């Protein structure tokens, strides 16, 4: 009798809300992720019912469906279906797969709810045309009236889009049972709680239980599920780390809240690539996919103004044109400023040192400002050459010719190193109308000719500056 009572006795443990590490006692700091004050108490049943020390025996059951050769398994049920939002379909690999669970994470105010509401409306229109079930949008953060106001503002109202405001998991599953949706959107997984699990909404045990229930529904019914996930102050997805392992796709929605550009990246994707990037323009009328985002990044690339140089960066496999601007101004202060925006600060400092040591372009007594246009981020080493040309152009007051684009990594000795994807960068530059391209000499012999673009291979930074800027 005593052994059965001890076996059924509840056991108290402590879980880290950041990484899911378990401890038998409370600690101030998690020993796994080193976060402070993140251990939360939860109670679980412990011990085997028989009280034996050995492992319990598991009985073999007759499977519901026998195993078949893999060649006889139909793949049509797992084909991706377009959502109506081209940039999202690009990132997901063609659309959403039936039964897939997609987690969308991002900082507060970046536009996650706006994006998914637009996706839900577009998917509802597509489902109505195909004769499929409606789209169910469940919000746990706002009331249904608040979501309706946003839907009116971004023109996301469709008769096949159903809206519900719920915070209880059982009620959410009841909506799924009664409506039979073709797509389920939950905003957000941290606001849904189950009465059968201890802890508050957003805790480790609650997030794990809610995610597990939604994943089971998705797999049983073949319904794709889009989940909104909060992020911590460090940029990681809030909740247990196991949440990212359970879902099929993890996407990051990022962008500067003071800029219009938003980027969608797939960090994990079981059904497609993880090197595609979707571009969106967030405005007052909602969010719009940008199949060609060059208009945001090339505001003055063609005008002959000192201190500008265009380049082409690679966001995954996607070439993105970026304009780099530089300003060199004299200062009376003892410590000149080095201010950057959208570029790697350390690489800009290295480029300034190389210009001073190898070309004699001394900016030690000047303030130097380097920025990109439109909130774009150009942090890859291939932007070094454009930064150097823009700084020299600004320091001497000599504008670079219109139609010039440059990309290449600059070493400490001044050599211009090879970079990846030169052919794709050249093709994008030709499409945008650039007629001159400065590229690294290494690997240029393997390049195919691009119509309308004169390629200038250079091996040293001095050659690049000489080819980019006319003699002052």
Care to describe what's here?
Belongs to the RecA family. RadA subfamily. Residues 367-472 are annotated as: Lon-protease-like. Keywords: ATP-binding, DNA damage, DNA repair, DNA-binding, Hydrolase, Metal-binding, Nucleotide-binding, Stress response, Zinc, Zinc-finger. InterPro entries: AAA+_ATPase, DNA_repair_RadA, P-loop_NTPase, RecA_ATP-bd, Ribosomal_Su5_D2-typ_SF, Ribsml_uS5_D2-typ_fold_subgr, Rubredoxin_2. The protein is elongated, with a radius of gyration of 28 Å. The protein has twelve helices and 21 strands. The protein has helices at residues 2-8, 86-92, 112-130, 144-153, 169-179, 204-221, 242-246, 294-297, 345-359, 384-396, 422-431, 461-468; strands spanning 10-16, 22-23, 39-45, 101-106, 135-139, 161-165, 183-187, 225-229, 249-254, 261-269, 277-283, 286-289, 308-315, 318-330, 338-341, 366-372, 404-406, 409-410, 416-417, 436-440, 454-458. Strand 18 and strand 19 form a beta hairpin. The strands form five sheets. The protein has a nine-stranded mixed beta sheet with strand order 6-5-7-8-4-9-10-11-12, with helices on both faces. A four-stranded mixed beta sheet has the order 13-14-16-15. A three-stranded antiparallel beta sheet has the order 2-1-3. The protein starts with a helix and ends with a helix. Residues 1-8 and 46-54 have low confidence and may be disordered. Helix 9 packs across helix 10 and helix 10 (384-396) crosses helix 12 (461-468). By secondary structure, the chain is α/β, with parallel strands linked by helices. It has three domains: 2-45; 77-291, 3-Layer(aba) Sandwich (Rossmann fold), CATH 3.40.50.300; 296-468, Ribosomal Protein S5, domain 2 (2-Layer Sandwich). 27% of the residues lie in helices and 25% in strands.
